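Case study: Serpin domain-containing protein.
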Amino acid sequence: MFLTLLMVSCFAMGTANRVYVHPFNLFSSENISCEVIQNEEHKPFETVHLTPLQDSTEPDPRSGSTTENLKNLTQRTAVLAELQNSLGLRMYQALSRTQKHGNTLLSPLNAFGALVTLYLGASKKTAISYQQLLGLNLESNQADCAYFIDGHTVLRTLQAISAHVDKSRNELRTLVWTFINNDADLSKDFLRGTQDFSDDSFVRAVDFSKAKEAEVQVNNFIQKTSDSK
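Here is what the predicted structure looks like once written out:
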């Protein structure tokens, strides 16, 4: 009886000493403030010049390690792993309802990363919906303003989760391909997001006005840059 009571007591003490940290607080910028969303002024995105598909098969240039200088990495990876698994389960359940007679295969980590990358190029109102879906939204007491996460920190943490310490031949690598119509503008923030979440990324401009030719070009490009995998 004494042993049982002691175990329960230790468990209760451990639970009481645990401090809950809202996921938003782990992935927000320092000195965060509520940003006005009503009557939002549509400020132009800082855009980048896109490399034409046929010009290069080399990965996009990038700087340094994407996981360096990340604070609270252990806590962030634990929280993010739980959130991505929760999202993956919801997606699996939704897909299973529409594909009752087929197999469903998805990667919660890649799905989560793709949504956060899109978040980086979204307007404030759309970004709120992304945060709610991902489980990273912090409700505001004011209807006309909202709090926003640092999407780059989320993506760098995801990359830390998928990174392998073992540098063997069988190491898994994350590659990202993004193909944009050649007359479209691409957000610099979005481009950086594709790099945060990958080992190598390829963002290219394609002429989609000729759909069949574009399909062949894109497929050939992916085959070349993925070592025919």
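For the exam, be able to explain this: The chain has two domains: 46-67+168-229, 69-162.
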